[in-house]
Amino acid sequence: MSGPFIKTPGWLDWYRNPSAPAFTLPEGTVDAHCHVFGPGAEFPYAPERKYTPCDAGKDELFALRDHLGVSRNVIVQATCHGADNSAMVDAVRASGGRARGIATLRPDITDTELAELDEAGVRGVRFNFLKRLVNAAPKEDLATIAERIAPLGWHVVIYFESEDLADLESFFTALPTPLVVDHMGRPDVTKPVNGPDFARFLRFVEHGDVWVKVTCPERLTATGRPALNGERESYSDVVPFGRKVVEEFPDSVLWGTDWPHPNLADHMPDDGLLVDYVPQVAVTAAMRQKLLVDNPMRLYWPGENA
After folding, report:
1. Which helix (H) or strand (E) holds 159?
2. Which residue, 178, 188, 186, is CA-closest to 208?
3. Nearest Cα residue to 124 out of 277, 254, 232
4. If we measure between CA atoms, which residue out of 15, 17, 31 comes closest to residue 226?
């Protein structure tokens, strides 16, 4: 059961007893991509959802934060909650200033509602283009939302499949806000890191006001060993892609856990071992400081010290 809801058959729950990372995160580390699910009895899942998850609320998220040595979180609205941001906003408010939020909005949101979200700590809106997660992503509505949030200084988080970038790029570049790309634009890691497909993505980042989340190797891997059973060099096939992004764009990369890892079908990673993935892609202390602390602080807590 998931509160009053029945979980999607085959759903993988988050890893209950994560290991202690071997890599010590620098002080002030921000987990810039995570979610909360419900709990469904308090924050019901959306009728139009494509999946029903296990409950994974703010208390469990903050416990993981403290266990991993993370200081702050950016909580991204989960698609299972639709445009009801209540669970995410509740978690952000409960963090005592240690979390920011990314919302899902409809174009008819009022100015008052936007102001309330801003006061709560929301700093962006997510546009999801994955067909398996949303029925449609109407560009006119999304463009209207982007125009509404631009005066607040918010940004747009974009989630898309790598093969769809060619069709979406002109829409993305016309948006009046900074962009944050989820999961490196979901590259096909069976193709060469220096090949034309990933090169197109890198040039998209280079020519725009674009940040990139070096996240979700567990989602992108094809042949890498999973972050389980003490494996501290996991997802080796994804590493060259993450390292390339960090080296080319050291001042505009972000990291996050993606806890509680929605819709994974193959395995559920140990979040402690996922932390040990970080030094594989950010190979110097200076790179790690930017990736984990300086960049997310500049984007989400400008003017504050870590």
Report:
1. strand 155-159
2. 178
3. 254
4. 15
Return per-residue pLDDT of the chain as tens, 306 residues: 345 789 999 999 999 999 999 999 999 999 999 999 999 999 999 999 999 999 999 999 999 999 999 999 999 999 999 999 999 999 999 999 999 999 999 999 999 999 999 999 999 999 999 876 656 567 899 999 999 999 999 999 999 999 999 999 999 999 999 999 999 999 999 999 999 999 999 999 999 899 999 999 999 999 999 999 999 999 999 999 999 999 999 999 999 999 999 999 999 999 999 999 999 999 999 999 999 999 999 999 999 988
Host H or E run for residue 181 = strand 179-181
Distance CA 191, CA 296 (A): 29
pTM for the predicted model, two decimal places: 0.96
What secondary structure letter does DSSP report for 294?
A: I
Kindly list the catalytic residues: 258
Q: Could you give the CA distance from residue 50 to residue 256 in angstroms, rounded to a whole number?
A: 23
Helix (H, G, I), strand (E, B) or coil at 85: coil
Nearest to 182 by CA among 79, 273, 284: 79
- In this structure, the chain runs to a length of 306
| Residue 116 CA neighbour count, 13 Å, CB half | 10
| 236 alpha-carbon distance from chain centroid | 21
Q: Measured in Å, how far apart are the chain's first and last C-alpha atoms? A: 39
Distance of CA 136 to the CA centre of its chain: 20
Q: Which of 82, 78, 76, 86 is nearest to 37 (CA)?
A: 78
Look up tokens 């560009």; give the residue.
139
